[in-house]
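Format is chain and fold; as here:
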Amino acid sequence: MDLSLKRDYKSTTPRLIQRHSGWVAPVSVLVVLGAWEAVARWGGLPAFILPSPELVLQKLAQTLADGTLERHTLVTLGEVLAGLATGGILAMALGYWLSRSPLVEKILSPYLVASQAVPVAAIAPLLIIWFPGVTAKVLICALTVFFPVLINTLVGMRAVPENLRDLMRSLHATPSQMLRYLELPAALPVLLGGLRVGATLSVIGAVVGEFVSSDRGLGFLINIGRGQFDTALVFVAIFALMVMAMSLYGIIVLLEKRLLKWRS
């Protein structure tokens, strides 16, 4: 093939993919559903091991009709939002403090890193004992969110160009003005990246807490389905968690586009 034709082919291929990318996701979903249906129908597996998509849809319609799915989803969503807000705010405040004080960072860093060596699932029973009720689930979510948002805050604040800090000092900017007009806008892309990660992790934290001890929520619904060998119910709860995580992620992406318009 002629070199010019090769270059034209390479340049037009990405454009074709971008132009027709709208059908990629629906087709991939249909392929997955078709493979799932084929395995469930001709694989000889009982329904309590792998229910067919039809059975899962029937269970979804049933749980929507009687309000079960809505009730448990709202409980988990409340825990997720409270944990995400608590962990995110505390992590950003501490990250800003550590970025301003290298000495405090050296003192606290070993403890912060060591805390991440312990899985949240291992300390979840202790939190359930110490903080009964919804508070424990919110704390588990907050702990899950805390570290990635903290690291992103620290990295974002440290990435602010020093010459811009010198410029703000030469203009006699106060610390609050420095934060509002320089540090926060400059670190915002990294901060929002940490929030995107934290939004998905917060859903995991809520489910871990509901697995340990709960009488409501999607994690509780998964436990009920598992105990009754109702695998279709488990699939419904899992899909609800996926939709919740993707929705939170999408909201933060939209927020990021809105807040970072000035970059373009």
Remarks:
- Residues 156 and 190 are 5 Å apart (CA to CA).
- The radius of gyration is 24 Å.
- The chain has one domain: 53-263.
- Confidence is low (pLDDT under 50) at residues 5-11.
